[in-house]
């Protein structure tokens, strides 16, 4: 059996009212149950509904610590997702309630040579780069501890949703005699600024969900008794209702902004805008506006 389990389980939910939370929760419970039917996969893709997919981490006994195998399967999933135009939004989540990713598998790390560790770090860097550069919007659903490499994984997503009861979100590496080595010093600084990044990394402090929201480390905190995956799915539904080509162009333009001066950035924005003007989705949006109906986008 391939290490990559690409499980597509269709659930017709486009007509689901956003006001009916129990149905959404039921859908997620069904997906979590279904994922246990493939125990050999430590990371796999599954469709939540049209336009939204989960990239699920599935090492429940190890709290999704990043092993060599999980990393390999995770990278394979990212490759598949990158070229799947049906995915408008990708949610990274755990199959296990109250869990996300506890960072690198330290038990496995102790058995690795220096050369093995170097390769692992290079592969992890590459995987998080692939995640960050996926063409569609991505959301991390943090339903449990996100420490070290787990938080670095979440930082490579476009948006982060934390579960209400999560109490451990941080980069504790300095407590272990190292520094964040999978993009933490760089992505955290770009997200929060120098002072806040230094504060969190120097102290190795873990934040609660509410503290992480106040810091700007996460974008949403789910309500009491609502999982981060539930809230992320709700957010993904809102995003995926928009034109797929526009979402991809917007992500590309926004992602380039920090590295470009204003005028080149405006030129890049204009070029991204220009490519959408004659798309079928743009015509559909104008017709739908005129006809006072919801547009039906096809990503064309």
UniProtKB/TrEMBL annotation:
InterPro entries: ClpP/crotonase-like_dom_sf, Enoyl-CoA_hyd/isom_CS, Enoyl-CoA_hydra/iso, Enoyl-CoA_hydra_C. The keyword Zinc-finger does not apply. GO terms for cellular component: mitochondrion. Keywords: Lyase. GO terms for biological process: fatty acid beta-oxidation. Pfam families: ECH_1 (PF00378). It comes from the Eukaryota. Signal peptide: none annotated. One of its GO terms (molecular function) is hydro-lyase activity. This is ClpP/crotonase-like domain-containing protein. It comes from Cristinia sonorae.
